[in-house]
Amino acid sequence: MDKKIVIIGANDFQKPLIQKAGEMGYETHVFAWRDGATGARYADHFYDISITEHKKILKECERIKPQAVATIGSDLANITVQYLAEKLGLPGNSRECICCSTNKYAMRQAMKAAGVSVPYFQVTDGKETEKITVPSYPVIVKPTDRSGSRAITRVARHEDLQEAVRNAIDQSFEKKAIIEEYLSGQEYSMEAISYEGTHTCLAVTKKFTTGDPHYIEIGHLQPAPLEPELKEKIIKEIFCALDALKIRNGASHSEFRVDEKGKVHIIEIGSRMGGDCIGSHLVPLSTGQDFVKMVVQTAAGEKPELNCRPLQKCSAIRFIMDQKDLETLKHIEEKYPQNVVEKVLEGQPGTHPVTDSSSRFGFYIFQTDTMEETEQMQLWK
User: Fold this and answer.
1) Can you tell me the mean pLDDT for 312-337?
2) Which segments of the chain are extended strands (E)?
3) What is the number of structural domains in the chain?
4) Which of 11, 58, 89, 327 is deepest in the core (most CB within 10 A)?
């Protein structure tokens, strides 16, 4: 019998999953709106159905009879994947897990109940915002159920809280915002794969953002330069949080900060691969681990294949935010052409403001043998 896989989503970040599943011998059935579905041409079968149309997709899946259903880099698609896997009797995480890992308020509640350290947090629907009190400022305000740096604002005084809440609610599907204690320190993420409740850390990524007030990501670097003792501490705390959220199978992307005292503060965790090419490109380039293949394997109920002799290289992605970034790219292509792995240009910088991850003007990915070579490129200045 031919192997079949259903993939939810078809944008640029889903393309590696579609291609990898095909390479693994799967007949690919991909669901997404046609608009922006750049991965559709790599699918064996494409269905122009919104990823939120759960019942319509299920009806097609009952005819297709897939052995697996998967997605990468999208919370919204991940909700659909869980629904389909449950209805079709396929491997996957529980409904409770998906609820806790796609809703930031439910996530904080689950981690707190399990004894995982969490900052102050509260949720609001925007009514009587002027009466909201917080222990101290600054705070971070964001939608409870969105990703991609949408409507994230650091608020330093009460007078600005109402506008930040309103902006977050406007972007929220459930029309709610979460208000959290502002966490200081360098930001990182951990990319992991889980199988039947056993977690494996594949990489820790250093994150670069625009900073205050909206923290839009401008780049990622692997491996994050960390002392071994601190890395072990991070892994232990993140694994406890994965258990608290009942993440048992598949990829996870955990974002956190480490403060000046070395304390780990978890920001949020997704029960799916991180976007921004972190899992699909940076992990294999820096470690040699085929993360996307592992996503397919765990979706099919198979133990993921780990490379017992991983690479020890450096990889990074730099997003194009303005004209200066384009000039930096040109300089790197001229001076370090052998290190540029891929580039994607999307529009001309300056034609619109960069308000979140989806409005950036493209990116470029590179790989080096050492961290010293990466530092010589001066990408983050």
Assistant:
1) 95
2) 4-8, 27-32, 45-48, 68-70, 121-124, 139-143, 153-155, 177-181, 186-195, 198-209, 217-222, 250-258, 264-270, 314-319, 340-345, 362-368
3) 3
4) 11
